[in-house]
């Protein structure tokens, strides 16, 4: 492509190519994103910068606004921590883990944890196929109908990484 557009000597493109290991991985699929699609990742970044930058923001203004966005995020987290000390959401299970988390997470994170905890109750791990490959079955009732989904999870013990299909 560089030859096609006569850009073989473009210094910026050469630097970007040589530094590709630093920026290319964010565009590749094998990396774990907790089930988030590319669109969701982009939307979460857009939400972070919403109200601070737009498509015509200069680099200097972007840096200033980035600092402002980070400070705002820290302030919100500080406020959430304060709210968590004065309010308590009841546990939805009798798991000791939930009780422990109730005392250390913010209200918002605890609600998120509870949702994930309840979701895992619908999943069943079937006996390992070969010691590193597992089948996970999720059974749910959606709009009055039973829905079952099967996932294959491969775990690489040497790298401590898992992949889900």
Q: Could you please describe the fold and organization of this structure?
A:
It is a single chain. This protein has 165 residues and is an alpha+beta fold. It has 6 helices and 4 strands; from the N terminus they run H-H-H-H-H-H-E-E-E-E. Strands 1-2-3-4 form a 4-stranded antiparallel sheet, with no helix packed on it. A hairpin with a 7-residue loop joins strand 1 (123-125) and strand 2 (133-142). The longest helix is centred in the middle third of the chain and has 28 residues, at 59-86. It is flat and about 65 Å long. The model has no long low-confidence stretch (mean pLDDT 81).
Q: Kindly report how far apart the N and C termini lie.
A: 33 Å
Tell me the total number of β-strands. 4
Q: Tell me about the largest β-sheet.
A: 4 strands, antiparallel
Count up the helices: 6
- Structural class per helix/strand content? alpha+beta
What order do the strands of the largest sheet run in, or round the barrel if closed? 1-2-3-4
* Whole-angstrom Rg: 23 Å
Q: Give the mean pLDDT.
A: 81
Percent helix among the residues?
40-55%
Given as residue ranges, the uncertain stretches (5+ residues, pLDDT < 50) are none
Question: What overall geometry do the principal axes of the alpha carbons give?
Answer: flat
Estimated share of beta-strand residues: 15-25%
Order of helices and strands: HHHHHHEEEE
């Amino acid at each position: 492509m560089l030859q096609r557009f006569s850009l073989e000597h473009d210094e910026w493109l050469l630097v970007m190519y040589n530094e590709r290991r630093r920026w290319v991985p964010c565009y590749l699929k094998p990396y774990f994103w907790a089930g988030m699609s590319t669109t969701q990742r982009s939307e979460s970044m857009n939400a972070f910068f919403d109200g601070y930058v737009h498509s015509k923001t200069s680099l200097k203004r972007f840096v200033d606004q980035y600092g402002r966005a980070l400070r705002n995020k820290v302030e919100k987290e500080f406020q959430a921590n304060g709210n968590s000390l004065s309010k308590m959401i009841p546990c939805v299970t009798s798991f000791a883990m939930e009780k422990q988390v109730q005392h250390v997470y913010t209200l918002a994170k605890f609600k998120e944890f509870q949702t994930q905890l309840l979701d895992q109750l619908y999943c069943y791990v079937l006996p390992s196929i070969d010691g590193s490959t597992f089948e996970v079955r999720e059974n749910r009732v959606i709009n009055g109908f039973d829905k079952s989904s099967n996932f294959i999870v491969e775990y690489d013990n040497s790298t401590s990484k898992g992949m889900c299909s």
